[in-house]
Write a structure and sequence with these properties.
Layout (H helix, E strand, L loop, with lengths): L5 H15 L14 H8 L7 E5 L3 E8 L12 H9 L2 E4 L8 H11 L14 H13 L15 H15 L8 H11 L3 E4 L3 H9 L3 H17 L3 H10 L3 H10 L5 H23 L3 E8 L9 H7 L5 E2 L1
Length: 315
């Protein structure tokens, strides 16, 4: 599936659909909700993880989200609702409301399009190409449709396929937790903010070397065809609040890609911690929603905040 792409699926979906509408007919490739996914969402107590840090005049709530979601899952627990309702301000990773074709297509042309003149899949070894074909076939896409990805970089091809796979399991980027909270915050008149821009997110992938780009693509294709239960497991961990297991699962997808992991997780966590420190210097209550993968593991967002002297307590 490519769990290292989870944070960008919701940002690129609109532009991806616009780009492929004339060439790949993405909507015609989506199949019904699988029984396995239904079972995963029906089991276990729902208790997504949330943390709190505070001082004499400031409260910050940290909520770990998933960027795509089964629209029927009732994930707003009383604890989450109370924390959200208490906040004057709401922060999210990036301004997903601005992710329209008009804003995204130029960014994707800059960071996601193949400018080499040679389709990346022509550089795949026979086993790598076989995995690509198997991934396409698993989504109902014939091998002949491979040419539709000729103008894209490997990472964005993987993002596109991961998005399609999620939809086959009934996971909708339009129903993502962050987007739902953003809409709720806007309707409630809360002050809105974000921790980084859309281009900052895309630039992380755009700045990859060709070797890193291809390695990430091949890793994602391998996961897609050999670890078909990963999505179900990931969302089970999220909805039941097993954040360390979720982080372990997501971090495993960065095996051998230390620089990319640092750019996607560690560096961003360090930057966000400094921004939260600035927020804590003010006053009021702020609810911050970021991908759950940032809130677990050795260099989590909480770890950086604790290094700055804050006590972060899980609620």
């Amino acid at each position: 599936m490519g769990t290292n792409f989870m944070g960008i699926i919701h940002v690129t979906k609109t532009a991806t659909t616009a780009f492929f509408r004339s060439s790949l007919h993405v909507t015609g490739l989506i199949i019904g909700l699988s029984f396995a996914a239904q079972s995963a969402f029906a089991d276990s107590k729902i208790n997504p993880a949330i943390w709190k840090l505070s001082d004499e005049d400031s409260v910050v709530w940290l909520f770990g989200t998933v960027h795509v979601q089964n629209e029927n899952l009732q994930w707003r627990t009383p604890k989450i609702k109370q924390a959200f309702d208490s906040a004057d301000r709401f922060y999210i990773e990036a301004p997903i409301g601005d992710a329209t074709p008009e804003t995204m297509v130029p960014l994707l042309q800059k960071h996601a399009f193949n400018k080499s003149g040679t389709p990346f899949y022509e550089q795949l070894s026979p086993p790598e190409r076989e995995n690509f074909v198997r991934a396409l076939n698993s989504l109902g896409i014939p091998e002949t449709a491979m040419q539709n990805f000729a103008e894209l970089r490997p990472w964005f091809t993987a993002v596109t396929l991961a998005g399609i796979q999620m939809q086959t399991k009934g996971l909708n980027p339009e129903s993502g937790v962050d987007k739902a909270l953003w809409q709720d915050a806007k309707a409630a008149g809360k002050e809105l903010g974000y921790l980084e821009t859309l281009e900052q997110q895309l630039r992380i992938f755009g700045d990859m070397t060709p070797e890193e780009d291809m390695a990430m693509f091949n890793s994602s294709m391998e996961e897609m065809v050999e670890d078909t239960d990963m999505l179900d497991q990931l969302f089970t961990y999220w909805k039941t609040g097993q954040i360390e297991k979720l982080a372990t699962l997501m971090n495993a997808s960065f095996d051998g890609q230390d620089r990319i992991k640092t750019a996607l997780l560690d560096d961003r966590n360090a930057d966000w911690a400094e921004q939260i420190e600035d927020i804590m210097r003010g006053s009021g209550t702020v609810f911050i929603a970021v991908g759950a993968g940032h809130l677990g593991g050795d260099q989590s967002l909480q770890w950086y905040l604790e290094r700055l002297g804050y006590e972060v307590e899980r609620q």
